[in-house]
């Protein structure tokens, strides 16, 4: 998709603008960068032969725990019952999720599922004492 030609923004996206500080330096401005802006951008000079320079825009999305799909912060269960605690997080690059107990004891993880940019972890306790 052509975004600009000289100073004119062709793409009808108000978040793009072009400026230049001299006849040799042109700047593409992207305001309010979003995850979907990730990708390759090319500056093309229409000479004979045509020359261009390509750059990749990497958009970093901070990790975030999705509260409505994660286990509540306090859960009660009877001894000898099983429980599954869920932590769902998203971000780019994919966040690394680790489970730990407050007292430092290790936790054995039974199952690990990965989504595209969402990581799911669940585990089962044999016994939880409250």
TrEMBL record:
One Pfam family, short name: Ig_3
Keyword line: Disulfide bond, Immunoglobulin domain, Repeat
GO CC terms, sorted: neuron projection
InterPro entries for this protein: Ig-like_dom, Ig-like_dom_sf, Ig-like_fold, Neural/epithelial_adhesion
Ig-like domain mapped to chain residues: 63-130
Signal peptide segment: none
PANTHER family found in the cross-reference section: CTX-RELATED TYPE I TRANSMEMBRANE PROTEIN, DPR-INTERACTING PROTEIN DELTA, ISOFORM D
Protein name in the entry: Ig-like domain-containing protein
Annotated source species: Menopon gallinae
